[in-house]
């Protein structure tokens, strides 16, 4: 069961991978609702405001371009901050810039007096500014103030222009300030934006020759453009380990802003439309970015490209890259601007469609019809008699109005990958068992794979099994799918998989059981036969049980390999474990109580015998001392010994060794003292008797 | 008697038994017949032994008592098996140990023994008591 699911999952994964590979190649789609919902999800104000004015601007600008969201949410919390920054005399140019940028969207109620104060402050800052960023912030802030309707004029426009231009390098890049020798592409974008602002703020016309020099710089900058394999173009720094490195997305966005802003004030730039299209494709190929900064950069740059004075890129995309012959799909192509807006009248021509593997053209020069209602170009592929498979499509866009060629960039040819799928028919399927030497005379059973009848075969190890069939596409050609497998599964869940060979006409497999006996681990019994056929272009890939075959294999010899252990159901780990029966040491056999007591009595008899013997010997207490002091000591001596014996008895019954030893120590000292006295007295008595 | 690899007479237990038996036989005049042998033994007990002092007879009796108790314990073990073995050893060794100590006491107290002439019997008795107490402490610990 798990294996079946594994197979089907394998198919699904294969198809997904194939489709993903197509989408990676030509999945460029214009900005869609996916971006809009991502913007709403990513730019979320915390407690009604964003952490900084810069982030608030990014959020609101993105919402403004994508036409989603409301500014009224953060108005109440952010406007006071904006006002505060504008009124404070100690704000830096960057703070002015962020506040004024944000105000352009928020439209807080700010008096014109405040703007005039800020403007005069900025004029002073511009005079003192020496770094590119300071100049940029100050000049652009002034431009925003002008945009509010307050008059703001840059007095020394030529001087400012010159000081910005002075920081440029020969390769089109810019330095951040005169001390820093490092040049940066990002700074080039900043500088161009600043120069454009200077030109529009100047009270008198800026010298055209100077503008021409900057145009030349821009061309130089575009020479350093970089390229990915799929045709997208981008800008990046020369050294990626610089302190100010911002990444290709931010750098390209900065350059696009700068170049489009400059083109807006300076007139036509000599940049080929293909490069603008390449830049547009770069931003679109990112898909939906995951961070706020990336999303802002993407949307902001694309909005600059959407309506720029150099050339507006037109994107050709396929809404559906998998077309089904069974459901009679049409090939649909969309041509839009980067934001999906309408284009001028144009025609799309399918120049060539060639099979992905063989690169031989199957159709050429088909013009697509235009559906004015849905704004889609379409083509009926059914009459073209294209078979199932994977194809590379080459399109060409031709604008109706030749003047539009200066305004729009179509990029010449555009490539796309498409899958054509259909139902594959399994024809002339036959299965049978025959003896090794009688192949031609084999009786084959016909299989009908569209129905669910199971066949049953029987074979021994001297025979062979043969399966043949043909695969036919809807157009009647022979089809060679990615996966054609035959699986034999034993009752004990041991499986064997075989790949089928294909000739030009049919698929065939012959299982020679004599050679397979060892592979099958000598397991006889019922084997279930399963056939798996699958391909990405096949709509009816299947994994079907054909039936079963009873195999009679010889007995395994001594050294035969055992079949591998089958995987245990992984969830059985969590079931109850087998019960462990503990084997305790059986207690030793003890004798019956009566016997033990009998022998206890028997052991005490010798004591009785000893006492009787003592009496017979005539033991007496004559030697026991009679006078008081020796009597006392003798009594104490005997009592001491009795006490020690009692202590031993207690030791056996309940005490532990240490207690006993302690008590014994005390008793022993007593006994030694008393015993010494007694025995010395006895000795002196007997010595007296001897001498007497 | 066996001859081992080195060619010397192998000193086995067998020769000791033979030697003691020979000695007894000579002592008791075995070749004179079993009755005579028994009479010799009886004469020994009645005449020779009766002359020993009472204190030595007491000690001998004590030794016989101790050994008998040991024998009874061994018979019991023979019947019921040696579990628990430590208890059996403890019991038997207490009997045998006290018998040994009593024999030492007898040697030291016996006036006919020239070696221990200067040792007062009270001192020997004190040693006997002390050694018995130590023996029985160990026995009680081992009894379990």
TrEMBL record, chain A:
Main location: endoplasmic reticulum
A single GO BP: protein N-linked glycosylation
Subcellular location: Endoplasmic reticulum membrane
Membrane-topology descriptor: Multi-pass membrane protein
Occurrences of domain Ribophorin II C-terminal (ranges): 584-684
GO CC terms of this entry: oligosaccharyltransferase complex
Signal peptide: 1-25
Protein name listed in UniProt: Dolichyl-diphosphooligosaccharide--protein glycosyltransferase subunit 2
From TrEMBL, chain B:
PANTHER family linked: DOLICHYL-DIPHOSPHOOLIGOSACCHARIDE--PROTEIN GLYCOSYLTRANSFERASE SUBUNIT DAD1
Sequence similarity: Belongs to the DAD/OST2 family.
Subunit (UniProt): Component of the oligosaccharyltransferase (OST) complex.
Membrane-protein topology: Multi-pass membrane protein
Function, in words: Subunit of the oligosaccharyl transferase (OST) complex that catalyzes the initial transfer of a defined glycan (Glc(3)Man(9)GlcNAc(2) in eukaryotes) from the lipid carrier dolichol-pyrophosphate to an asparagine residue within an Asn-X-Ser/Thr consensus motif in nascent polypeptide chains, the first step in protein N-glycosylation. N-glycosylation occurs cotranslationally and the complex associates with the Sec61 complex at the channel-forming translocon complex that mediates protein translocation across the endoplasmic reticulum (ER). All subunits are required for a maximal enzyme activity.
GO terms for cellular component: oligosaccharyltransferase complex
One Pfam match: DAD
Keywords linked to the UniProt accession: Apoptosis, Endoplasmic reticulum, Membrane, Transmembrane, Transmembrane helix
Intracellular or extracellular location(s): Endoplasmic reticulum membrane
Full protein name: Dolichyl-diphosphooligosaccharide--protein glycosyltransferase subunit DAD1
Involved pathway(s): Protein modification; protein glycosylation
Positions of transmembrane segments: 17-46, 58-79, 85-105, 125-143
Organism (species): Ensete ventricosum (Abyssinian banana)
The keyword Transmembrane helix is annotated on this UniProt entry: yes
A Gene Ontology BP annotation from the UniProt entry: protein N-linked glycosylation
Main localization (coarse): endoplasmic reticulum
